Amino acid sequence: MLKEKIESLKKQFLEEVGKITPSEERLFELEKKYLGRKSEFIGILKNLKNLTPEERKQIGELANRTKDEIMEIISGKKKELEAGSIDFEKEKIDVTIPGKRKGVGHLNPISLVQMEIEDIFTSMGFEIADGPEVENEHYNFDVLNVPKDHPARDMQDTFWLKDISNKEKLVLRTHTSNVQVRYMEKHKPPFKIIIPGKVFRHEATDPRHEHTFYQFEALVVGKKISAANFKYIAKTFFERFFEKEMNVRLRPSFFPFTEPSFEFDITCNICNGKGCPTCSHSGWQEIGGAGMVNQKVFEAAGYKNGEYQGFAWGFGMERLAMLKYKIDDARLFHGGDLRFTKQF
Ligand code: FA5
């Protein structure tokens, strides 16, 4: 009896599904009618428990199979319906149209130069140190042996900050040398560090001068450090940085914090030393100041006079970037013109 009932329900379903024009609504109605909670079919399944074990097995199997078949037919119809509702004309993509390039950010050449400097020096065992851009007079000048009334304080035209604390006079640091004694107070030699960072000077700008620019300081301190070590390390750095042989030249100079002091030049990368307008036809480019650390600076840091020697330098990163990328005006770096930055 039940077997026939199931078969006739299936037949009835097949007839009905064959006749309808499938729509979401109609299919939902069909599903409800044949497989819904109150449907005849589910009623049979619910009453299986009242049958003998043998009947239960037989009828159960048939009922479940039929239920699956009905489900399958309904979901097949649903899929056909979905596929039919896609408007291929609208969805069509013309893969031959050239793509729109998304704008991506660019690193400023100064950042690129800084990253490269850091890579080269860390590979030589240097550590990277950091210090404040707003600095007190003590670390920017006093500990560096720049006497209070010495004209050297005017040498670096300084942005003095309004005294708000009444305790100490603050400046925008004029060089990365402000970190020298800060570092030495906390570390015992031997050590070798570089200090890359932003510095500020109250001066008129021109193609080689900005009021805000970048330097990187080096400080190497130990028991037997000489100017020869300095020259070798600097030359090694420049050859790695420019990926070619570089000559370096030291000229006598003066800084209160070094004794002796040098002006440091490298082969002009624009003309390879032959002479051109950028290097004023000298074949050399001035990169920075350097020297053997003055013992007075060591004393200010708490080291005993004569116990250590060391060298230091402060090189301009804009000058390096200009030479590397052949840029003729330092003001382009921080001018914010995207046509410039986008080239890097
Ligand atoms: C100094 O700043 C010293 N602190 C360097 C130093 C460090 C000497 C440690 C000894 C020991 P100077 O003022 O010469 O020195 O500046 C160093 C370099 O910074 C210059 O050679 C130049 O490359 C760069 N520089 C200086 N002024 C500017 C500026 N206005 N714009 C761009 N680069 C500049």
Helix share of residues?
40-55%
Would you report the number of β strands?
9
CATH-derived architecture of the largest domain: 2-Layer Sandwich
The CATH topology of the largest domain turns out to be BirA Bifunctional Protein, domain 2
What's the end-to-end separation, in Å? Answer: 84 Å
**Sequence of strands across the biggest β-sheet:** 1-4-5-9-8-7-6
The run of helices and strands is HHHHHHEEHHEHEEHEEEHEHH
* CATH homologous superfamily grouping of the largest domain: Bira Bifunctional Protein, Domain 2
pLDDT averaged residue by residue: 91
Strand fraction equals: 15-25%
CATH class category label of the largest domain: Alpha Beta
- Compute the CA-based radius of gyration: 41 Å
Bound molecules: adenosine-5'-[phenylalaninyl-phosphate]
Biggest β-sheet, characterized?
7 strands, mixed
Structure overview:
The protein has helices at residues 2-19, 24-35, 40-46, 53-84, 88-91, 109-123, 137-140, 152-155, 179-186, 227-242, 295-300, 317-325, 338-341; strands spanning 127-128, 134-136, 170-172, 191-200, 212-222, 248-255, 258-267, 284-293, 309-316. Strand 6 and strand 7 (258-267) form a beta hairpin. 28% of the residues are buried. It is elongated. The strands form two sheets. The protein has a seven-stranded mixed sheet. A two-stranded antiparallel sheet has the order 2-3. Helix 1 runs parallel beside helix 4 (53-84), helix 2 (24-35) runs antiparallel to helix 4 (53-84) and helix 6 (109-123) crosses helix 12. The protein is built from 13 helices and nine strands. By secondary structure, it is an alpha+beta fold. The protein folds into two domains: 2-91, no CATH class; 109-341, BirA Bifunctional Protein, domain 2 (2-Layer Sandwich). The mean pLDDT is 91. The structure holds adenosine-5'-[phenylalaninyl-phosphate]. The site of adenosine-5'-[phenylalaninyl-phosphate] (FA5) has 27 residues, from strand 5, strand 8, strand 9 and helix 12.
